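Every protein is a chain of amino acids, and every chain bends into a shape of its own. The protein below has been through that process, and both of its lines are reproduced in full.
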Amino acid sequence: MTFSDSTPEQAPKVPSSLLSDADLMQRLEQAAHRRRLVDAELAELANEAAYRSRPSLPKAEKLASQNGHPRAPGLVERLTRVSAAEARRLVALGAKTQPRQFMGQTITPEYPHVAKVFTAGEVEPNTALTIIRMLQSCAENGTPQDKLDIADEALAAEASPLV
C-alpha cells in the first residue's frame, strides 16, 4: 500500500500500544502524509478565499467582507480555527502553489516543481514555503528565470523523499 492509497478507514482499529514496531511506523508515516495532504487542501482553499476577496472586487462582492472580515486571512482564521499567522501562511502558500489567473488565462504556479511536491503531500508546508521564499529572494536579486527553474526542480527533488 502506498501513502496515497491509505485512508483512516484502512488503519487497524487497535490501540497504538498494541501495534508492532513496523505497524506503528507505517501508521505514523500514513498519518503524516494525510496531514500534509490536508495542509495542501487548506492552502488551496485559502487561496480561493483570497481570490474571491481580492482588492479589485467591490466590497459587497468580496467573500471576506460578506462574512465580516476585511481580508481573506481573517476569514480563513475564523473558519479553520488557526492563528492569524497560520491563516496568513495558508493564504501565501496557496498563492504560490496553485495555478494563477492572468488576463482570463490559467497559468501554472510560479514554482511548479515545489507546488507539485507540496500539493501531492510529499513535503510539509514550512518546507515548501522556505523553498519558495528562497527562490523569490533569488528572483528579486536578478537570478535569470532559467536558473530559477533549475533550482525549483532541484530543491523540490531534494526536499521530497518520494520524487
The helical segments are 21-51, 63-66, 72-80, 84-97, 112-119, 125-140, 145-159.
